[in-house]
């Protein structure tokens, strides 16, 4: 078996999986692969994946607007989600195939993993499944515009769980920036029916908070998995995450859309735009994985927030959207938050 | 002529008026009276005057809401403004009277000043006069809710002129905080008609910007006057500022309300609440002077912004106001701005 040895020491790619509990992730500046003089390429890949995620997320929202204009969703969302996971799985395998061809099979890129490494991959998929099922019930308490507003709790929950679980430090200014990001995104989405959110009953608030915690926890847990073994090839990690994504989406199809799929068929209502959306979701999903491995959840949240603003601006040209004063104010606050996050780095 | 030389002990209180041009104000940390081991009382008086200004400004807004509820303004606003200036003038004289009794008449508290010292006091009063006259014309281009929004330009203009004219430095984080303060105050004021501001014609924007510059310049110029000669008794400086305030308000009465005052009389429509408002305006005006002398324009802007939020919160209890989601978001942004301003102090 080929083992790469760095710095003359013994291979640490294996023992960092087995010796420590999963959530005891190496922190960014002590993690092996950052400090080994690879700071610059690291910075480069971080920027590339962040920009890719931002662009893919904004085009995602534009595709959604486009498909809504073209008519209602005719296809079943659960089958589309399953196909997204399947496509991501296939793309990861294809990437691995190429890598095996050039580099050969090593301990870091071999597909088969320890039971521990595979088991943890079920967690994010299961969390997302629970969250998606909850989503069907929350609308009993919360109307759609209010739900848009409440989804911004995700930003806060991600920040808090990132701090608590991954034990990463944000500086005071970065915390302030994070609160601003949340307030700015919400402000940018304000419209005449937003105030209804204040009439949301307690159950609605609780469910929204639980959902935010579930999705925040899934994100943070995925980051823990990706960072746990930095030298592990990302496509292997993705493969296992997406396999469980597929499995859990099969469960969702059975729970939610069994009758429709049985009566109308799996691909009922699919169109060109549905195909484009599945392709886009798959690519954004992979971009998220890369951001988790090479950057972090905080970067992901900033990236998707900026994407939301980009979407609105592009929509002005594509769909002659009207931008509101609230949008300009929210965008200003989000921009200042991005700036403060970057100038506010904790001092080492 | 008495001259103080720094570190050598002679009086410098006079030459700082005569030797340098007005706007070459001593910066805060090199100004004589801060560095003379009086940092602590300085910090104390700064807090007291800031809190006083915040409370007076918020009660001012509450009195305005109260008077609107009681009926329309029946009295002429120009006569009320004149009385405010007259009352401030009287209060300054009364304070001086006491000081002369205890300390005797000194060079710093004598009422008669050099022609230079008196001339500069005409500038803020004249600027406010022009601004108040413009206010009558801007409504040809801008509707009332839009004007409320555009008035937030004052925050930006004060910050920019403070930097340019007084040459005070704000740190990067403090500049970011200042932009947030402006965005947050505007967000907190958003309502269903706010978006109309986007239809404001160019002339409306220009006039709003000119008015913001006039009021920003008046504020910054007042600070320059107050800080130019730190050892000068503040009541003398106030006296001369308010004398010209009275004179320029007489002009405003002639220009705007001559007929009404002639036909109905000077005190037509005055009520208990009018009297309370005049008293409140006079006290807040004096508080502004103290903030200018012992703190600065930036503190004043933060103080009045926080006052706006306090007013809204108090109005919930007094007038069963409804707070909007926009108000909560704006308040969050303003609070973060206040926090960032205080943690973001430039390093010395």
Question: Quick gist of this model?
Answer:
2 copies of one chain form a homodimer. With 348 residues, chain A is mainly α. Chain A has 14 helices and no strands.
Shape of chain A: globular
Quaternary: homodimer
The structure class of chain A reads mainly alpha
Count the helices of chain A. How many? Answer: 14
State the distance separating the first and last CA atoms of chain A. 39 Å
Query: Mean of residue pLDDT of chain A?
Result: 85
Portion in beta strands of chain A: under 5%
Integer-rounded radius of gyration of chain A: 21 Å
Helix content of chain A: over 70%
Largest sheet of chain A: none
Low-confidence runs of chain A (pLDDT<50, min 5 residues)? 1-20, 28-38
Index terms:
homodimer; 348 residues; mainly alpha; 72% helix; disordered N terminus
Word description of this protein:
Two copies of one chain form a homodimer. With 348 residues, chain A is mainly alpha-helical. Chain A has one domain. Chain A is built from 14 helices and no strands. The longest helix of chain A is centred in the first third of the chain and has 32 residues, at 39-70. The A-B interface holds A 149, 172-173, 176, 179-180, 183-184, 186-187, 190, 192, 194-195, 197-198, 324-326, 329-330, 332-333, 336, 339-340, 343-344 and B 149, 172-173, 176, 179-180, 183-184, 186-187, 190, 192, 194-195, 197-198, 324-326, 329-330, 332-333, 336, 339-340, 343-344.
């Amino acid at each position: 078996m080929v083992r790469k040895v760095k710095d003359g020491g013994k291979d640490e790619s294996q023992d960092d999986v087995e010796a420590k509990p999963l959530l005891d992730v190496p922190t960014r500046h002590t993690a092996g692969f950052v400090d080994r003089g690879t700071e610059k390429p690291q910075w480069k890949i971080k920027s590339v994946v962040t920009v890719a995620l931002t662009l893919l997320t904004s085009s995602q929202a534009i595709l959604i607007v486009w498909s809504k204009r073209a008519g209602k969703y005719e296809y079943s969302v659960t089958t589309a989600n399953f196909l997204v996971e399947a496509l991501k799985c296939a793309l990861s395998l294809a990437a691995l195939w190429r890598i095996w061809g050039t580099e050969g099979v090593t301990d870091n890129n071999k597909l088969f993993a320890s039971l521990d490494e595979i088991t943890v991959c079920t967690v994010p998929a299961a969390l997302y499944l629970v969250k998606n099922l909850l989503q069907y019930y929350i609308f009993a308490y919360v109307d759609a515009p209010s739900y848009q507003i409440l989804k911004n709790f995700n930003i806060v929950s991600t920040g808090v769980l990132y701090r608590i679980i991954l034990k990463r430090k944000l500086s005071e200014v970065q915390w302030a920036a994070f609160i601003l990001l949340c307030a700015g995104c919400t402000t940018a989405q304000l419209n005449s029916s937003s105030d209804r959110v204040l009439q949301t009953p307690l159950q609605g608030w609780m469910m929204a908070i639980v959902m935010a915690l579930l999705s925040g926890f899934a994100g943070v847990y995925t980051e823990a998995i990706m960072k746990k073994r930095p030298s592990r090839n990302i496509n292997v990690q993705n493969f296992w995450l997406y396999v469980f994504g597929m499995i859990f989406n099969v469960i969702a199809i059975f729970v939610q859309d069994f009758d429709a799929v049985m009566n109308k068929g799996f691909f009922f209502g699919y169109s060109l735009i549905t195909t484009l959306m599945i392709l886009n979701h798959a690519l954004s999903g992979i971009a998220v994985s890369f951001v988790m491995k090479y950057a972090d959840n905080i970067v992901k949240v900033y990236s998707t927030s900026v994407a939301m603003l980009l979407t609105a601006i592009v929509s002005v040209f594509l769909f002659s959207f009207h931008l509101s004063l609230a949008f300009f104010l929210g965008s200003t606050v989000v921009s200042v938050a991005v700036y403060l996050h970057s100038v506010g780095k904790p001092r080492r």
